[in-house]
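hi! just following up on the protien thing from before. the input was this:
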Amino acid sequence: MQTTLKISGMTCGHCAMHVKKALESVRGVKKAAVDLESATAVVEHKDGVTVGEMAASVSEAGYEVSA
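and the predicted 3d structure came back as:
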């Protein structure tokens, strides 16, 4: 499965890497591609991984997933 998330709070490349690592730490996430310019993350994951789980990990890293 693939999910695109809107991420707020990123200001630099380091932020994007931090979000990528946070997303990839979620059990069932295969990989994440984070784009600073568009403030989005495209996440490849197994069925059963919820947006809530991904959002919680991003939030713990200091950023937010917005609708």
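Helices lie at 13-24, 51-60.
The chain is about 35% helix and 35% strand.
cheers
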